[in-house]
Write a structure and sequence with these properties.
The chain has 10 helices and no strands. By secondary structure, it is mostly helical.
């Protein structure tokens, strides 16, 4: 019975994940994403990681995915108009990508091991029976899978930048505020000093 439930959740997770990528309607893609989160939460329950399953449902489904759904419905994204200017902005994006790649290369090239690495690695670890689910997850996540954890943060950063670029597109008939122009205005255009006589108004 456990194997059947596992394969059921696994197949549904893979299928719904594929639909997230292939769905043409952004709203449908977000709904399939929510279904994927629920199926993955079921897999975590089978593995005995109830804390991770609860986080998947409460945080990702209850907050992130629902926020994505509302944002997609409010933006009314058109695929054709969203792709406009891709070729024009491609050189700038390539430059930013190369700079980011160079920074990562410098960070990893300067990476050195702690001289006491062998001592720290050989430090006694409490048995799993004495650790809570959250403590065991933190020890594994921030030691064995720290690089994957950092890569996941980079993926979220790219997604955040992409969402900002989608919302900052210019549309006709909409008033926009330029913080740079507003902050660079001279004081004479912002404040006008009036000398008012006593007992009289302007």
């Amino acid at each position: 019975m456990t194997a059947f439930v596992f394969y059921l959740f696994a197949v549904l997770s893979v299928a719904s994940g594929a639909m997230v990528v292939t769905a043409r309607n952004p709203v449908h893609a977000v709904l399939f994403l929510i279904l994927t989160f629920f199926n993955v939460a079921g897999l975590f329950v089978l593995l005995g990681a109830e804390f991770v399953a609860m986080i998947m449902v409460i945080v990702y489904v209850g907050a992130v995915a629902v926020l994505f759904l509302f944002v997609v419905m409010m933006l009314d994204i058109h695929a054709v108009s969203a792709r406009e200017g891709f070729v024009r902005m491609l050189p700038a994006g390539a430059v930013v990508g190369l700079v980011l790649f160079a920074e990562l290369a410098l960070v990893f090239s300067a990476w050195t091991l702690d001289p006491n690495f062998a001592t720290v690695a050989a430090a006694p670890v409490p048995p799993p029976s004495e650790l809570t689910n959250t403590e065991a997850l933190g020890m594994i996540l921030y030691t064995k899978y720290i690089y994957l954890f950092q890569m996941a943060g980079m993926v979220l950063l790219v997604g955040m930048i992409g969402s900002i670029m989608l919302t900052l597109r210019k549309r006709g008939g909409v008033k926009r505020q330029s913080p740079l122009e507003q902050a660079s205005r001279p004081l004479s255009e912002c404040v006008e000093v009036k000398k008012v006589a006593t007992g009289k108004g302007i």
